[in-house]
Structure formats: C-alpha cells, structure tokens
Write a structure and sequence with these properties.
The complex is a heterodimer. Chain A is built from no helices and 11 strands. In chain B, strands 2, 4, 5, 6, 9, 10 and 11 form a 7-stranded mixed beta sheet that branches. Classes of the chains: A mainly beta, B mainly beta. At the A-B interface, strand 4, strand 5, strand 9 and strand 10 of A face strand 4, strand 5, strand 9 and strand 10 of B.
C-alpha cells in the first residue's frame, strides 16, 4: 500500500519558473527522501531529510518536512527542460530503513 | 564506481512460466532491495537482502523470492507468472545511511 500521496499529480510549468511538489504520509517516519525518474528508468536520489530536520537545501532543490502535519514539500527553483521527469517521495521508518514506501509520484513537465 | 546493474533489461514470458532477474550492486554495498513498479500500484517494496540474509520483506505472495550471494549480487525469482506480474522491477543497493542507489530496472512482460 502507498504511504505517501503527492500533489499535484501533474505539473506543467515554463522553464525558469519554480516548481513546488507536496507529499503527505501516514505513519511515523525516520526519514523522507525525494527521487526522480525519467521515462520509466531507474530512480535517482535527489535529497534526504531526517525526521528531526525541518529544511534542507541542495543546489536548486529545497525540501521541507513538517512531522506534525506528516507532510513534505520539494521546491525546484529556476526549472530547466531537463527537470522534466516523475518525482517520488519515499519514507523510511525506524528499524526498517531500507524498506522505502513510495508515493504515486508527480509528473513534472518543464516547457522550453 | 560502476552503478547498479540489472540483467536482463527486457523480458517477455508467458503465464505459468518462471523468471529470474539479476542485480549487481555497487561495489562495497551489502544491502540490496527489490521493488516492483506498475501503473496501478506504483512502487512497492518486495524484499531486502543484507549479507546473504533477507532482512525485510514486503507484502507479496510466496511466488516472489530472492537470494543474495557472497559477492552481494542478488537474484529474484517469480514462479508461476501471472499477467499482473508485468512490471518494471528495480533493485537498489546501499551501504550505511539511508540513500538507495537504483539500477535501470528489468521490464517484464507476461503474455
């Protein structure tokens, strides 16, 4: 069963704009990660945030975590056409960190 | 370091057959996890192996099994294939930490 729910399910923006994607989850977590997938290929790890952290940055990526609301958001600034992909949030629980539970994903289209 | 490799990349089988998929983790990684991705159910965890032992298991029937060898390479087997087993099967490896490194996947089609 899916732990996370991302919204929106699909997002279309112009190159240079910012993209914000949200994820909600149901149970207590140890960490939350965001992955990117291009055209049904393997997933690429983007960023991880631990349950005791509230915000992290990595290049053009900013992730926030609100454990009281069981939600996270991923912001991609100054988007590029190459950012077009599906984005997934995944949660890891205490004692089972390798067992990631994924949301259904968000399809991001960045128009040149 | 070379990334995670999976073989074969594409596979077509018929109902009732069995299939074995292979995964070679990044050198030095002892944990290998398997995931199934379908349009309907999304990404679902199958199992994880660490040092040749199954450490975690998802909610899949016993037709899905796996193993890990002493060199950390892993195989998963699906017996008595059903149409619903058509999916992209992804393996991921890691060593310490939480980040997982995924392979390109094996796309299995069951006819």
């Amino acid at each position: 069963s899916q732990q996370g729910e991302e919204d929106p399910q699909a997002l279309s923006i112009q190159e240079g704009e910012n993209a914000t994607m949200n994820c909600s989850y149901k149970t207590s977590i140890n960490n939350l990660q965001w992955y990117r997938q291009n055209s049904g290929r393997g997933l690429v790890h983007l960023i991880l945030i631990r349950s005791n952290e509230r915000e992290k940055h990595s290049g053009r990526l900013r992730v926030t975590l609100d454990t009281s609301k069981k939600s996270s958001s991923l912001l991609i600034t100054a988007s590029r056409a190459a950012d077009t992909a599906s984005y997934f949030c995944a949660t890891g629980r205490f004692g089972a960190n390798s067992k990631l539970t994924f949301g259904k994903g968000i399809t991001l289209s960045v128009r040149p | 370091k070379a990334g995670v490799t999976q073989t074969p990349r594409y596979l077509i089988k018929t109902r009732g057959q069995q299939v074995t998929l292979s995964c070679s983790p990044i050198s030095g990684h002892r944990s290998v996890s398997w995931y199934q991705q379908t349009p309907g159910q999304g990404l679902q965890f199958l199992f994880e192996y660490f040092s040749e032992t199954q450490r975690n298991k998802g909610n899949f029937p016993g037709r899905f099994s796996g193993r890990q060898f002493s060199n950390s390479r892993s195989e998963m087997n699906v017996s008595t294939l059903e149409l619903g087993d058509s999916a992209l099967y992804l393996c991921a490896s890691k060593e310490g930490g939480y980040e997982q490194f995924f392979g390109p996947g094996t796309r299995l089609t069951v006819l």
